């Protein structure tokens, strides 16, 4: 009897597992949680080296047994890295191991596979190897990416940005809903294609510090960008605070790295606190003392200088010394730094003492430029960047005409080994020691976007390039096994450089030229002959009123990815309804979660009468699905939905089931 019960339980378990999609592994061969093994390097704090050099692993605890270290990229390796020292205690429950870099290693950004008694850690962006130490750093810069699994979306077209789509639809015919996930990936990948030395993110990497999925998304964006050859260095911001998941998934609270003659220090200015602790300042001073002769660059999230009452965009400060002119200097500080004068004064004294030419910050979601020249004639740039991925900023045109507009931006800052700093893509206008330039960043992703779709069937990229030039460079993508570029479905110029499996994941590295306009790259295991599946869930409000805006919630999915998704409204005569300059109303993702199939479309109010709403979904092979809903604005009856008949009908059973299943959740959300 017991045997029968056990057999029955095993059968039930096997049945349940088959429904869920497979038997979970008893033990994972690979781990991607760096914090189980290391303090540094980390996914956003790589090690830097040259052939024949070395770097240090800072390991958690004193008992981690490192059995071997392998460096591999899509194009190069694997290389076995020699361990040059015994494990050495380093205090604070850390230990170190010095790792050698082979003389014959090719310059590249490498995954590190660190084999230990606890398993094998897979660390993307683990080691950047230069052919020789760079004499100039070209720093691609993003900030306030605010990656979220929520539905925060801004709307862009050309140089315009609005947080309200209705206002943007009055300005241009093709407003694009831009989610932080798309914005962040686009900016990272753009600079990977544009010959930057490193990419720096100055904090608020995600929107909510407890959003583990968002951290996994920024981890994946970092992984693919570094696999394209561009190393990433990131710091935490106030939205990453408390840094529980941040430090588990992507990096330490504060750190330093060296790149040849350059010293990069990352500080943590906390959450609402808005300034580093004195302990950090003292730690920074110790690092600076140990690296005299280096060119220091300091990263922190909350700006140091920021006095909107004097000038919102920044200014020029000359011939003032923190030791003797502090009362005048402190009036120009951001209030959080000014609230802790001992820390603030000590920091600026260190800027002068150690001749720190460049500090970089974010937080205010606006470009800002301060140039402080001390009494010795040394220049110190305090630069702040607009938000790369958040819609929470002053729109363009501004909501208040007296306010300073902005956009979704990034930048390139160049610093040489003599400490000279420039931003080659932008100019800064200064009058009477006050900055007069609203936009001091590059319109990326404002004018350059990549919409990425990954499924078991393939990987498809839709490019939107509204810049005045084509963009050429490397792109690394994750693909299914045996996937290949489909030239018939691809209309960009491309060359496959290499493909490789790394730690059970398949990657392809390509060199791509993205022309102006809209284009696509399709890598899959076969041609897509299936049309998307679309199903309307509900309208809000459910009973439409004349001349009142409304929202449609619906599901849409495809085995490869949906390239174009929009709604059209036809009046009783069959003419498309236009609002402002728009007659195709763009759909927006309801969240930033990978693989989410739920969307919304915001529609303008209609006059009394009968209308036909169509939601159109077209995939990367031109397969199109259309679903319709009849709207009667004049009656109190609930609108009825019917699908189009024939070739372009878009309803299918599984999509309908999913949509119906989500209706109670959506209704709960509406209440």
SSE arrangement:
Blueprint: H1 2-20, E1 30-31, E2 38-40, E3 47-49, E4 54-60, E5 66-72, E6 79-81, E7 88-91, E8 94-100, E9 108-116, E10 119-129, E11 136-142, E12 153-157, E13 160-162, H2 165-169, E14 176-179, H3 180-192, E15 198-201, H4 212-227, E16 232-234, H5 244-249, E17 255-259, E18 262-266, H6 278-290, E19 295-299, E20 314-318, H7 326-329, H8 335-338, H9 341-353, E21 358-361, E22 368-373, E23 379-384, E24 411-416, E25 421-422, E26 430-431, E27 434-435, E28 448-454, E29 458-465, E30 471-479, E31 484-485, E32 493-502, E33 505-514, E34 517-524, E35 533-540, E36 550-557, E37 562-570, E38 585-586, E39 588-589, E40 598-603, E41 610-619, E42 624-632, E43 640-643, H10 653-670
Parallel strand pairs: 1-10, 3-10, 11-15, 15-16, 18-19, 19-21, 20-22, 21-23
Antiparallel strand pairs: 2-4, 4-8, 5-6, 5-9, 7-8, 9-10, 11-24, 12-13, 12-14, 17-18, 22-23, 24-25, 26-27, 28-29, 29-34, 30-33, 31-34, 32-33, 35-36, 36-40, 37-38, 37-41, 39-40, 41-42, 42-43
Helix pairs in contact: 3-4
The major pleated sheet works out as:
7 strands, mixed
Question: Class of the largest domain in CATH?
Answer: Alpha Beta
Instruction: Please give the order of strands in the largest beta sheet.
Output: 17-18-19-21-23-22-20
How many beta-strand segments?
43
- Looking at CATH, the homologous superfamily of the largest domain is Metallo-dependent phosphatases
**What distance lies between the first and last C-alpha atoms, to the nearest angstrom?**
52 Å
Shape designation: globular
Counting DSSP H or I runs of 4 or more residues, the number of helices is: 10
Radius of gyration: 27 Å
Mean pLDDT, as a whole number? Answer: 91
- CATH architectural group of the largest domain: 4-Layer Sandwich
List segments where confidence is low: pLDDT < 50 over at least 5 consecutive residues: 1-28, 637-671
Write down the domain tally. 4
Measured as a percent range, the helix fraction is 10-25%
The helix/strand class is alpha+beta
Percentage of residues in strands: 35-45%
InterPro entries: Calcineurin-like_PHP, CGP_CTERM, Metallo-depent_PP-like, STPP_CPPED1
GO molecular function: hydrolase activity
Protein name: Phosphoesterase
Pfam family, one: Metallophos
